[in-house]
From TrEMBL:
Record domain Pyrroline-5-carboxylate reductase catalytic N-terminal: where: 4-103
Class of this enzyme: oxidoreductase
Subcellular location: Cytoplasm
Keyword flag Cytoplasm: yes
Keyword Cytoplasm: yes
Catalysed transformations (reactions): L-proline + NAD(+) = (S)-1-pyrroline-5-carboxylate + NADH + 2 H(+); L-proline + NADP(+) = (S)-1-pyrroline-5-carboxylate + NADPH + 2 H(+)
GO molecular function, a single term: pyrroline-5-carboxylate reductase activity
Name the UniProt record assigns to this protein: Pyrroline-5-carboxylate reductase
Species annotation: Sinomonas terricola
Domain named Pyrroline-5-carboxylate reductase dimerisation: residues: 167-270
EC number: 1.5.1.2
Signal peptide location: none
InterPro entries per UniProt: 6-PGluconate_DH-like_C_sf, NAD(P)-bd_dom_sf, P5C_Rdtase_cat_N, P5CR-like_CS, P5CR_dimer, Pyrroline-COOH_reductase
Domain of life, per lineage: Bacteria
Length: 276
């Protein structure tokens, strides 16, 4: 078997990348995916028409998947990354670029688990990649050439915004854009709950909250959009929004968000240390 892109560990994040790339025109016959469970492999095969193998059934599924691959995207949980790298190492094509989407796994940890000289690129994507509105950071490893980094950036540009950052910044990127979609969904959940508490039918309130976050997102997507200016345009002097924002400020919402992001970044650093 010879596939161009092997997705090893195709859960939430790698599925979002897989879907985003297929939607952008990557051909399904150029893609292979591995997962733990057979049912999940069947689901991916059915949903996308790609070849998907389960490690539970074919213990060498990961090795089979990388033979002939030019790009290997590792999408397992951080704890499983280096074992997986060691598993595929012996059969990895020498020039294959190994991309990790895992939080907290350093380039050094990944390089140590792979054959010497293997090109590695550490990324931090987010799930809106599925709809072509993701954010992906890219950091090249010791053996990744400029050309390889640029090729991965070009491929991932199909998923949304691509930024290249020094590795020291990945934990912060993760705390803003990696985890960020969850913050936005959390806001939508809280808005829906708030509307229900004000007497709206919960289903209607959820619909209003969802569409409002979507609509605001579209406005933020316009070139040069400034969130503060857009917020001010909704906030009439002495009107209703002003009271809501004043309440958020009094309750320290910006600090709460900063604390949350700091906790996320600290957790990344702690996982890196735990992985050793
Ligand atoms: N979910 C997200 O929004 C983001 C996740 N990430 C990173 O992506 C990675 C995966 O996270 P999720 O997709 O959320 O987890 P997940 O649990 O949804 O997906 C992991 C997948 O890997 C499979 N798997 C585990 N061990 C395997 C092995 N040895 N061989 C083949 N498949 C194996 C599992 O069956 C599962 O399908 C993590 O390292 C995480 O830090 C990064 C950015 C955002
Ligand atoms: O929660 C996590 O650990 C992963 C990394 C960024 C988003 N999800």
């Amino acid at each position: 078997m010879s596939y161009k892109i092997a997705f090893l560990g195709c859960g939430s994040m790698n599925e979002a990348i897989l879907a985003g790339l297929l939607a952008a025109g990557v051909h399904k016959t150029d893609v292979i995916a591995t997962v733990r469970r057979g049912e999940r492999a069947d689901e991916l095969a059915k949903r996308y028409g790609v070849t998907a193998m389960a490690t539970g059934e074919e213990s060498d599924a990961n090795q089979q998947a990388v033979r002939g691959a030019s790009l290997v995207i590792i999408g397992v949980k951080p704890i499983g990354v280096t074992d997986l790298a060691a598993e595929i190492g012996p059969v990895l094509p020498h020039g294959a670029v190994v991309v990790s989407v895992a939080a907290a796994v350093s380039i050094e940890q990944l390089e140590r688990a792979l054959p010497a000289g293997q090109p590695v690129i550490r990324t931090m994507p987010n799930t809106p990649a599925r709809v072509g509105r993701g954010v992906v950071s890219v950091s090249g490893g010791t053996n990744a050439t400029r050309e390889q980094i640029d090729q991965v950036k070009e491929l991932f540009a199909n998923l949304g915004l691509v930024v290249e950052v020094p590795e020291e910044q990945v934990d912060a990127v993760s705390a803003v854009s990696g985890s960020g979609p969850a913050y936005a969904f959390y806001l939508a959940e809280a808005m829906a709950d708030a509307g229900a508490k004000l007497g709206l039918d919960p289903e209607l309130s959820l619909l209003l909250a969802r569409e409002t976050v979507v609509g605001a997102g579209y406005m933020l997507a316009e070139p040069g959009a400034d969130p503060a200016a857009l917020r001010k345009a909704v906030t009439s002097p002495n009107g209703t929004t002003e009271r809501a924002i004043a309440t958020f400020e009094e309750r320290g919402l910006p600090d709460i968000i900063a604390d949350g992001a700091r906790a996320a970044a600290e957790r990344s650093r702690a996982i890196t240390r735990e992985l050793g």
